[in-house]
């Protein structure tokens, strides 16, 4: 089955595109005439500077603010009892939580349930094909 080599069946596309182009250009001309004239007294925004300009000493002010906050945090007293308690707790031999029977049993039950559920899901997807 060969293709038809003539464009006669698709000439309507060219006509539609030409009419759409004419409508668009006329609409753009109408918008250009309706646009207000820019005021020469107003400064025009520059495309090169999208952000407002900062004062020249802005970096120095930011650094001073950071230094004040740092000094305030350095002046706070450290709680010695908390750090001492943690240090002694780390050195004591505390039995591991995995030696308890309850977490081991719960973990085993969850493992079996998940194995059963995922196995059933895998079997169902395999049978559905």
Tell me about the largest β-sheet: none
Terminal Cα separation, in Å?
Answer: 37 Å
Instruction: Report low-confidence residues grouped into runs of 5 or more.
Output: none
Which range best describes the helical content: under 10%, 10-25%, 25-40%, 40-55%, 55-70% or over 70%?
A: 55-70%
State the total count of DSSP E strands.
0
Determine the number of helices (DSSP H or I, runs of at least 4 residues). Answer: 4
Strand-residue proportion: under 5%
State the shape: flat
Whole-angstrom Rg: 38 Å
Return the string of H and E elements.
HHHH
Oligomer status = single chain
Task: Report mean pLDDT, rounded to a whole number.
Answer: 75
From the helix content, strand content and strand pairing, which structural class follows?
Answer: mainly alpha
Annotate the secondary structure layout.
Layout: H1 11-34, H2 58-75, H3 80-91, H4 101-128
Model description:
Helix content is 64%, strand content 0%. The radius of gyration is 38 Å and the shape is flat. The protein has four helices and no strands. It has a domain of 36 residues. It is mainly alpha-helical and 129 residues long.
What's a quick, concise take on this entry?
This protein has 129 residues and is mainly α. It has a domain at 57-92. It is built from four helices and no strands.
């Amino acid at each position: 089955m060969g293709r038809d080599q003539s464009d006669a069946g698709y000439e309507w596309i060219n006509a539609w595109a030409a009419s759409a182009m004419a409508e668009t250009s006329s609409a753009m001309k109408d918008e250009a005439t309706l646009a207000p004239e820019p005021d020469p007294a107003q400064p025009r925004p520059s495309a090169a500077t999208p952000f407002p300009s900062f004062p020249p000493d802005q970096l120095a002010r930011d650094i001073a603010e950071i230094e004040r906050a740092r000094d305030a945090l350095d002046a706070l007293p450290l709680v010695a009892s908390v750090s001492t308690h943690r240090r002694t707790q780390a050195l004591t031999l505390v039995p591991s939580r995995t030696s308890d029977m309850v977490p081991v049993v719960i973990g085993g039950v969850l493992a079996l349930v998940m194995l059963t559920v995922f196995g059933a899901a895998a079997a169902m997807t395999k049978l559905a094909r």
